[in-house]
Amino acid sequence: MQTNTNKTLSRKSIIKLEDIITQFGENRVHDGISFSINKGEIFGLLGGSGSGKSTLLRQMILLQEPTSGLISVLGHNINSLSPSQVEALQLQWGVLFQFGALFSSLSVLENISVTLKEYTQLPLEVINDIAHAKIKMVGLPPHAAWLYPAELSGGMKKRVGLARALAMDPKLLFLDEPTSGLDPASARAFDRLIIELKYMLNLTVVMVTHDLESIEYALDRFIILHDKKILIEGTMDDVHQLQHPALDTFFKTNKH
C-alpha cells in the first residue's frame, strides 16, 4: 500500500522516478517504483537491509542503471544523455558517501579542492579560499585544513566529505547514511547542519538513512521500501495512520 501527501504535489518536482525495475540476475530489487522529490526538501530513502534504497540513490547519480523505467533529474532524462551532458549534470550535485570516501594521502584542504581543480580554471589561491570557506561552512575549525584523514574523528570525516560535496555549489545533495557510525550527539549535530545548509544554500537533499531520529527530525518526506515496492510515501503523520507489520518491524529494528 502506498500513500501520498497531496499538499506537496503543487511544488516543483526536481527528481522523478517512473516505474523503476531493477533486477540482478534472478533477483528483482525494485518492481515498479515511482515517486518524485520536490525542490527544497530533505527527502529520505528508507527501508530494511536489501530493500534497494542505496541502489536507488546510485541510479539517481548515474553510478548504476535500472533495468527499466525513467529517471529525470533537474529536468533531464538521465537515460538518454551524452557523456558530455552526463558530466555537466553531475557537476550540479554533490555526494557524501557513507564513510566519507576521502583521499587518505591528501590533506583536508586538498580533498575539498579536488573537484575545483579538475573542473574549473580558477587560480589556486581562489580554490584555496573556496575550500577554506567550505571548511567554515560545515563547522570545522580553520586548522582542520592542514590535517589528514587519519587524524580526523568520524564526525570530522563526515564534515570534510560534506564540504567536498558542496565545493561546486550544487543544487542537489545526496547523502548515504550520513549519521552512520556517529554517537547520538554528533548525529544530531550533523542533522542540524544539513537543515541549516538546506536553507542557507537553497539545497534539495536526498538522504539514505535508518536513523530514526534523523527520520523524525530532519526529513520533510520519505519513501519506505518493502517487498520490491514503495510501502508508503509521505511523512511521519502518514506512518502513524497506516497499520502494517513491516512498518512496526522497520521502526522497532532501527530504534536505538
Layout of helices and strands, plus pairs?
Layout: E1 13-24, E2 27-38, E3 42-47, H1 53-60, E4 68-73, E5 76-77, H2 83-90, E6 93-96, H3 108-119, H4 124-137, H5 154-165, E7 172-176, H6 184-201, E8 204-208, H7 212-217, E9 221-226, E10 229-234, H8 236-241, H9 245-253
Q: Could you name the key traits of this structure?
A:
36% helix; globular; six-stranded mixed sheet; 9 helices; four-stranded antiparallel sheet; 25% strand; alpha/beta; Rossmann fold; 256 residues
Largest sheet: 6 strands, mixed
Structural class: alpha/beta
Uncertain parts: 1-10
What share of residues are in beta strands? 25-35%
Give the CATH superfamily of the domain at 6-92 and 170-253. Answer: P-loop containing nucleotide triphosphate hydrolases
Enumerate how many helices there are, as a single number: 9
- Mean pLDDT across residues: 90
Cα(first) to Cα(last) distance is 27 Å
Would you write up a description of this structure?
The structure is a single chain. This protein has 256 residues and is of the alpha/beta class. The chain has a domain at 6-92 and 170-253: Rossmann fold (3-Layer(aba) Sandwich), CATH 3.40.50.300. Helices cover 36% and strands 25% of the residues. The strands form 2 sheets. It has a 6-stranded mixed sheet with strand order 6-7-8-3-9-10. Strand 1 (13-24) and strand 2 (27-38) form a beta hairpin. Helix 3 (108-119) packs across helix 4 (124-137). The radius of gyration is 18 Å and the shape is globular. Mean pLDDT is 90; it is low at 1-10.
